[in-house]
TrEMBL record:
<dbReference type="InterPro" id="IPR006677">
    <property type="entry name" value="tRNA_intron_Endonuc_cat-like"/>
</dbReference>
<feature type="domain" description="tRNA intron endonuclease catalytic">
    <location>
        <begin position="130"/>
        <end position="181"/>
    </location>
</feature>
<keyword id="KW-0456">Lyase</keyword>
<dbReference type="InterPro" id="IPR011856">
    <property type="entry name" value="tRNA_endonuc-like_dom_sf"/>
</dbReference>
<feature type="domain" description="tRNA intron endonuclease N-terminal">
    <location>
        <begin position="6"/>
        <end position="65"/>
    </location>
</feature>
<dbReference type="Pfam" id="PF01974">
    <property type="entry name" value="tRNA_int_endo"/>
</dbReference>
<feature type="domain" description="tRNA intron endonuclease catalytic">
    <location>
        <begin position="78"/>
        <end position="118"/>
    </location>
</feature>
<protein>
    <submittedName>
        <fullName>tRNA-intron lyase</fullName>
        <ecNumber>4.6.1.16</ecNumber>
    </submittedName>
</protein>
<dbReference type="Pfam" id="PF02778">
    <property type="entry name" value="tRNA_int_endo_N"/>
</dbReference>
<dbReference type="GO" id="GO:0006388">
    <property type="term" value="P:tRNA splicing, via endonucleolytic cleavage and ligation"/>
</dbReference>
<dbReference type="GO" id="GO:0000213">
    <property type="term" value="F:tRNA-intron lyase activity"/>
</dbReference>
<dbReference type="InterPro" id="IPR036740">
    <property type="entry name" value="tRNA_intron_Endonuc_N_sf"/>
</dbReference>
<dbReference type="GO" id="GO:0005737">
    <property type="term" value="C:cytoplasm"/>
</dbReference>
<dbReference type="GO" id="GO:0003676">
    <property type="term" value="F:nucleic acid binding"/>
</dbReference>
<dbReference type="InterPro" id="IPR036167">
    <property type="entry name" value="tRNA_intron_Endo_cat-like_sf"/>
</dbReference>
<dbReference type="InterPro" id="IPR006678">
    <property type="entry name" value="tRNA_intron_Endonuc_N"/>
</dbReference>
<dbReference type="InterPro" id="IPR006676">
    <property type="entry name" value="tRNA_splic"/>
</dbReference>
Length: 189
């Protein structure tokens, strides 16, 4: 299989061959507008053997892109976010950035997306301009196992998720990169 080529540009990887990339990752409207995808998505594609990333006319490997991603985003949890992204992908979900929701990822169900796309094709509608587009089901906040939060902080996360009709999940990653997913909700008594 021929690898797709991407160019590192700030915190994005620019790629002309979006149709090939869309077979592996979810390129939402933001990615299409920005003309590329995130470093975390790029790491996943490199690991899958699908992508070659160039930086200043040189191919960079997984470890180099990981280090650049940490430095560019100034995020000490960058690697564990990648671990969660990869795990979600392996389970058939389609993670996308959750930045505007104050979390790390919003998550779509891949099976639903494929089914929805087939329905739109039959009706000859353009998926990207349909008012019936699929919505994410979950908001994922990635935290290391030593993460400390207050009840008001957690309650704020839950309120935000509920305000946009999503379920909040904390992805807790330990030192061995094992992940536990905790769904958190508010109960009315």
């Amino acid at each position: 299989m021929k690898k797709v080529t991407g160019i590192l540009s700030g915190t994005r990887i620019l790629c002309r061959d979006k149709s090939t990339i869309e077979k592996y990752i979810f390129l939402g409207d933001e990615a299409k507008k920005l003309g590329g995808f995130s470093v975390i998505e790029g790491l996943y594609l490199i690991e899958k053997g699908t992508l070659e990333v160039y930086d200043k006319n040189r191919i960079i490997n997984f470890a180099t892109l990981l280090e650049k991603g940490k430095n560019l985003t100034r995020d000490e949890n960058f690697y564990i976010k990648y671990v969660v992204f990869r795990d979600l992908m392996s389970k058939g979900y389609m993670p996308a950035t959750g930045f505007k929701f104050g979390v790390d990822f919003r998550v779509y169900d891949k099976k639903e997306e494929i089914k929805t796309a087939k329905t739109y094709e039959k009706n000859e509608k353009n998926i990207s301009h349909s008012s019936n587009r699929m919505h994410s089901k979950f908001l994922i906040k990635v935290v290391p196992e030593e993460y400390i939060s207050s009840f008001p902080g957690i309650a704020g996360d839950i309120r935000l998720a509920k305000a946009v009709n999503k379920n909040l999940i904390y992805a807790v990653v330990d030192k061995d990169s094992d992940i536990l997913y905790y769904g958190i909700d508010i109960a009315k008594i």
